Amino acid sequence: MSEEISYVMSAINQIYDNLWIGDIKIAFEVATQALQQGKIEKLVEAAEMAKKLITFLRIEAKEKEIEDKEDWVTESFLKRLEDISIDDAIAGVMMVHLSNLKAALNYLVESGKIKPLLEEEEPSQLRKEKRYKCVVISQPPKFEVKALLDTSFSVPNFERLKKVAEELGLNPTILEKSKAAMTLRFFSGNEFVEVIAQRFIARIIMTMREPSEERMNRISSKILEMLTEEKNGSFDRK
Fold first, then answer.
1. Which of 51, 67, 68, 124 suits 154 as a labelling partner, its CA being 20 to 30 A distant?
2. What tens digit of pLDDT does each residue of 194-232 get?
3. pTM here?
């Protein structure tokens, strides 16, 4: 993967991650910064050249009544590449997508529909901590916490998991872990908590028999602190 593709892909991922928790201000800043890079015109030009070549080849395939048109177009495209870099063309297509994202975000900014997010004070529902930021969606007896982590989530060992559960008065179930995701569940006589972590995001879903925002904040804060501890194992960004 080229440096340009990796850079644009990282920017787009950051935009979607911030949109997921409703931080449009940061999403807009990421898009603006990414589109200020010097190679943007070259990349978009490569994408346009590739698009024109593919269009030409599809017309040619139709005129020649070729049976497997898409396979023929792909093979012919690769053979006829001259001044077009495949990596530049791919990065260019992604840059166009990034530009469209910025335009949509810019519309929201200029229309004033996200004014609270652009003022100096952070909105009450968006909470920023040292190693993560999160938004809380309250629909008692159900609460949902969406968090964007500064680094990939940490995998707690059994002793750490047990200690956190005891401090919160909860019982943990077996930790479920795949290649890049993890699921934790806790329960007590009053609440059931499910934690789903994937790379740089975490989602905490809490159902309470006796709803309490104070209790919800304590549980979610403790869990997010555990997920962002440096001493545990973690999944790296790739």
1. 124
2. 999 998 999 999 999 999 999 999 999 999 999 998 755
3. 0.69
CA atoms of 85 and 99, how far apart (whole Å): 21
List domains and CATH numbers for the chain.
3-118 (no CATH), 126-234 (3.30.160)
Helix residue spans in the chain (DSSP H): 3-20, 24-34, 40-63, 69-80, 86-111, 115-118, 158-168, 213-227
What torsion, rounded to 10 degrees, do the Cα atoms 52, 55, 57, 58 define?
Answer: 170
CA dist 115 → 9, 25, 106, 112, 202 (Å): 28, 9, 12, 5, 26
């007896």: which residue's tokens?
141
Please report which helix (H) or strand (E) contains residue 145, including its range. Answer: strand 142-149
